[in-house]
């Protein structure tokens, strides 16, 4: 038996092999194991989970589907791939493919989040999405971002790095204000303008 919460939040688990078909796995045993993408069951059948749509489009046995659903329990999406709710009570978050947008205020004032790795599919960060996340240090895999909303990272005092690219076409007002640890940032050649107070008091730039 694998008890509830036994491996919850373990980001090192990528593969699971269930050696015995009679093994019981309780609910939430693998909750928020965001990197778990491959399960081999007791019959030797292999199932993989690479993007959010797999939960609807692939035919998983009930126990396999439940485990995969619990792995991404912290992400609540609508049908367009817009993430409207997530937990900020995790230090390191890796978004699953299929998350296109982080909605307004999703991680606002999340005081545990230190690093987030965006999915390749993530193109939009909404207004105040990470505002006042005082321990956020790095936003990884941000090259595909097209839009960063107003005050998206305002007050993220520990933010040092975000790797943007020429895909970025829009910055909202005050998007990086008071990011006093931000050391460098790439300014996209496709930006029409840099809005008011976008980098206000970014004293390390």
Entry summary:
With 205 residues, this protein is mainly beta. It is 7% helix and 18% strand.
What does this structure look like?
With 205 residues, this protein is mainly beta. It contains two helices and 13 strands. A six-stranded mixed β-sheet has the order 4-5-7-9-11-13, with no helix packed on it. The protein has a four-stranded parallel β-sheet with strand order 6-8-10-12, with no helix packed on it.
List the helices and strands and how they pair.
Elements: E1 15-17, E2 38-40, E3 46-48, H1 54-57, H2 62-71, E4 75-77, E5 82-86, E6 92-94, E7 101-102, E8 115-117, E9 124-125, E10 138-140, E11 147-148, E12 161-162, E13 170-171
Parallel strand pairs: 1-2, 5-7, 6-8, 7-9, 8-10, 9-11, 10-12, 11-13
Antiparallel strand pairs: 2-3, 4-5
Mean pLDDT: 95
- Structural class label: mainly beta
User: How many strands in all?
Assistant: 13
Rg on CA atoms, Å: 19 Å
Sheet with most strands: 6 strands, mixed
Choose one word for the global shape.
elongated
Helical content band: under 10%
Helix-strand topology string: EEEHHEEEEEEEEEE
Strand portion = 15-25%
Strand order of the largest sheet: 4-5-7-9-11-13
Distance between the termini: 53 Å
What count of helical segments does DSSP give?
Answer: 2
The low-confidence runs, each spanning 5 or more residues with pLDDT under 50, are: none
List keywords for this structure.
205 residues, mainly beta, 6-stranded mixed β-sheet
């Amino acid at each position: 038996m694998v008890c509830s919460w036994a491996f919850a939040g373990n980001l090192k688990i990528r593969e699971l092999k269930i050696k015995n078909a009679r093994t019981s796995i309780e609910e939430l045993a693998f909750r928020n194991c965001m990197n778990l993408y491959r399960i081999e069951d007791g019959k030797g059948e292999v199932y993989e989970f690479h993007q959010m749509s797999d939960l609807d489009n692939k035919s998983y046995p009930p126990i396999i589907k439940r485990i995969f659903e619990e792995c991404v329990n912290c992400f609540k999406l609508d049908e367009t791939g817009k993430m409207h709710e997530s937990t900020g009570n995790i230090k390191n978050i890796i978004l699953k493919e299929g998350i296109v947008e982080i909605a307004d205020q999703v991680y606002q004032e999340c005081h545990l989040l230190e690093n987030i790795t965006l999915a390749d599919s993530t193109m939009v960060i909404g207004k105040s999405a990470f505002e006042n996340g005082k321990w956020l240090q790095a936003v990884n895999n941000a090259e595909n971002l097209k839009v960063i909303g107003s005050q998206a990272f305002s007050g993220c005092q520990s933010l040092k790095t975000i790797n943007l690219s020429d895909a970025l076409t829009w910055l909202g007002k005050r998007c990086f204000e008071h990011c006093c640890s931000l050391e460098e940032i790439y300014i996209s050649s496709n930006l029409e303008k840099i809005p008011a107070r976008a980098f206000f008091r970014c004293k390390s730039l």
